[in-house]
Amino acid sequence: MRTIDIHSHSVPHGWPELGEGLPALRIDSEREAMIMLGDREFRRIDARCWDAELRLADMDRDGVARQVVSPTPVFFSYEETGVVAARVARIFNDRALELAASGGGRLIPFCQVPLQDTDLACAELERAVACGHRGVEIGNHIGDRDLDDAGIVTFLQHCAELDVPVFVHPWDMRPSVRNSRWMAQWLTGMPEETHLSLVAMILGGVFDRVSEELRICFAHGGGSFPHWLGRFENAWHRRGDLIATSEHPPSHYLDRFSVDSVVFTPQALRLLVDTLGHTQVMVGSDYPYPLGERPVGAVVERSDFLTREQLDAILFENARRFLDLPGT
């Protein structure tokens, strides 16, 4: 078992009632619960979200040596004040450490922070890392503020200075009449959100301003970005009067970020490898949610175009470097 899963989520079973407007957990049985947003049912979850023993059993079945465990994004609370979100983050992060402690060293906790308040976000990052978190998961935007927002850039630079890896997850896909059918917010909105934020990282000059030491990974294969890099590159050169706001064309920055492998087919994985390079792709699963991949790493293993070196890189070597883990 060598595979490292860079993308999974948790929800603490003992989540407290924190007040109106904040996510709550309705316990329906010992093995099932419902995430509630006020009176609205958001998502049904099961014991794999909080039970380390169940996680480890699934990891054993899938040949996963270690798994990064990040928050479920609905708990970010970015729409609240920074003080409220900091309280939520502190509780979530402490409970996540309890889950990781039950994992025998195989569960790697990533914290959340009140990203809407830069000072509070930096403070909670420092506290969480000091307590045992190995990285941080952030949402890809805060309302209309994308990743090139000055406060978020300051936070990303702080992550680079602390040598803390960042995992960016799309969230808060705003509903409309057209995207409220067929889970379209997840099927089309999530890829679009990640694509837009990568565009903001490049054209907003984030990669030009933030230290090259920043380790940052984008979920779901970078969304639709890899597919449309050619269009992006063409526009940068042909309409530089409007979008050539970065120091270099988009293709220059491809080694500045990683993506996970949650793309479900070898054909899609080939696009990632051809576009970004095999050193920029890491196994992810989105465990334990229904739109995730099981068995973990199956698409990578089925991709017969990969050499043994490339397989090893995607299955564990890239993640080992991203997480700063000792060699195996």
From TrEMBL:
EC top class, as a word: lyase
Keywords from the named record: Decarboxylase, Hydrolase, Lyase, Metal-binding, Zinc
InterPro entries: ACMSD (IPR032465), Amidohydro-rel (IPR006680), Metal_Hydrolase (IPR032466)
A single GO molecular function term of this UniProt record: hydrolase activity
Cross-referenced SUPFAM superfamilies: Metallo-dependent hydrolases
Entry EC no(s): 4.1.1.45
One GO BP: secondary metabolic process
PANTHER family linked: 2-AMINO-3-CARBOXYLMUCONATE-6-SEMIALDEHYDE DECARBOXYLASE, 2-AMINO-3-CARBOXYMUCONATE-6-SEMIALDEHYDE DECARBOXYLASE
Protein name from the UniProt record: 2-amino-3-carboxymuconate-6-semialdehyde decarboxylase
UniProt organism field: Leucobacter triazinivorans
Phylogenetic lineage: Bacteria, Bacillati, Actinomycetota, Actinomycetes, Micrococcales
